[in-house]
Design goal:
Largest sheet: 7 strands, mixed
Shape: globular
Strand content: 25-35%
């Protein structure tokens, strides 16, 4: 199956994901990894979930997939996003969130691998790319293991607690 392996399955967000998305989107510690600057209301997330069902990446320029385990009682352990989709140049950025309780279990690696396969084989993308803080060595190493290449360093890219930090741009090119 295109969006699954023996350990995980990627799926569209469902209304039942409201509580976990509310938790993740309002975790201020996670904001430094994305672009969120304000909390999300349940109403806003409910509307997002309602609209996400009818839109595709070509309309909204983004796609969120929930990461579920392939256990008898599946658990939602994270989400992966394709965003800033550029169909003309056949590229998109990719980001991932794994719930704190499920770190270091290989779910991020599996999800990023499945996302790349989906982007290249189904969406016909030429490349996907990720921004990684220079001090995030675990994500950097994971992306390298997946075949991503560091193509540059973005100086003073992210302001966190008043301090500017550098980030790497990592690319995976579909050969």
């Amino acid at each position: 199956m295109l969006l699954s392996n023996q350990r995980i399955r990627l799926r569209a967000p469902e209304p039942e994901d409201l509580d976990i998305l509310y938790k993740w989107e309002n975790d201020t510690q996670m904001w430094e990894y994305g672009s969120a600057t304000t909390p999300y209301s349940r109403l806003a997330l409910r509307q997002y979930l309602s609209e996400a069902q009818c839109c595709d990446i070509y309309q909204s320029k983004q796609l969120r997939l929930m990461i579920d385990t392939q256990e008898a009682a599946p658990k939602t352990v994270g989400a992966v996003d394709l965003f800033d989709f550029d169909p003309l140049n056949r590229r998109a950025a990719v980001g991932i969130l794994i719930d704190d309780a499920h770190h270091r279990k290989g779910y991020a690696y599996d999800a990023m691998q499945l996302t790349a396969e989906y982007a290249f084989n189904h969406l016909n993308m030429k490349q996907i790319y990720a921004f990684v803080a220079t001090d995030n060595t675990s994500s950097y190493k994971m992306l390298q293991k997946l075949g991503y290449v560091q193509s540059g360093t973005l100086k003073a890219w992210k302001c966190i607690a008043g301090e500017f930090r550098d980030a790497y741009i990592m690319q995976l090119i579909n050969s």
